[in-house]
Amino acid sequence: MGAGLGAVKAIDGKDVKLSKYKGKKILIVNTASKCGFTP
User: Does the pTM exceed 0.85?
Assistant: First the structure.
């Protein structure tokens, strides 16, 4: 596997380390800021 992602920004703006979810299946939803699905 490649280097992967180290961290992402949560909806509240805080950084979330993806290592927290190692060994678990996660779904990352990436929506545009002007998309109707964005809260």
Answer: no
